[in-house]
Amino acid sequence: MIGENIIELQETTSTNIFAFELIKEKNIEEGTVISAISQHSGKGTGSNKWESEAGKNLTISIILKPEFLSLGKQFMLNIITSLAVHDMVSQLLQSKADVKIKWPNDIYVGNKKIAGILIENTIFGNTLKYSVLGVGININQEVFFSNAPNPVSLKNILNKEIELKKCLALLCSCIEERYVQLKNEKYNLLNGDYLSVLFRKNELAKFNYKNKVTSATIKGISEEGKLILETLEKEIIACNFKEIEFVI
Asked: What is 6-196's CATH number, 3.30.470.20, 3.10.50.40, 3.30.930.10, 3.20.20.60?
């Protein structure tokens, strides 16, 4: 299903914006992929932007219709997308050792960011009508010009070019597999897989929390997707995104 219909754009502002324009215009087929060679205003979480050199990386959006998913389980969409990108990057690097998911949904190799994800949902009443999975993966870009602190690409790591269409096909396959698991309510499997590759889980690390640096250990994720931390004083903190920042 995912990737059977691919809309290839030479350039666009944002594949997520384009996806929502399609949704407004017609009953778009689930699994439709919008892929852009050049994306001028790639969206990150909040006001963040996603840098991508034209023709070098994957900048895509995938349209899903997860009406089967309750509103309380929206974070499962972050989990399956993160896991799918993690699966894809791990396969291409032929090793899972250094590939991690940095909560909520960045993909890291070591201490460097190789992919970012932005999920935007449309809700009608109590139903998740549409979900747009925006994914940016650094594939062949060698030099990064934005003020992002720690980007890396597959080419930086492997020292060779990788065919973008091969990467897209593999990513669609990985997302399909994880989406089927979600439809089949494999929540324990998905949560377990996510926690098993969570960046800095069970490691004492530093975080910016309430305008000060705090040492704490990641203990898990709540059902709503909050990050659960335990401080040195044994205090348990449940954090929403933007309430806390990793010190890398």
From this structure: 3.30.930.10
Torsion angles phi and psi, residue 119, rounded to 5 = -110, 125
Per-residue pLDDT, 47: 46
| pLDDT tens-place string over residues 35-89 | 999 877 555 554 456 567 888 999 999 999 999 999 999 999 999 999 999 999 9
**pLDDT tens per residue, range 181-217:** 999 999 999 999 999 999 999 999 999 998 899 999 9
Positions of CATH 3.30.930.10 in the chain:
6-196
Q: Using the structure block, give the residue that is written with the tokens 């698991």.
A: 181
CATH architecture group of domain 204-246: Roll (2.30)
Cβ–Cβ contacts within 10 Å for residue 16, how many?
A: 24
Report the alpha-carbon distance of residue 96 to residue 117 in Å, rounded: 19
Query: How high is the pLDDT of residue 50?
Result: 57
d(CA 108, CA 103): 10
40 secondary structure, DSSP code? T
Q: Using CA atoms, how far apart are residues 144 and 189, in angstroms rounded to an integer?
A: 36
The enclosing H or E element of 93 equals helix 75-93
Name, in order, each residue with C-beta under 8 angstroms of 237's C-beta and a sequence gap of 6 or more. Answer: 209, 216, 228, 229, 230, 231, 244
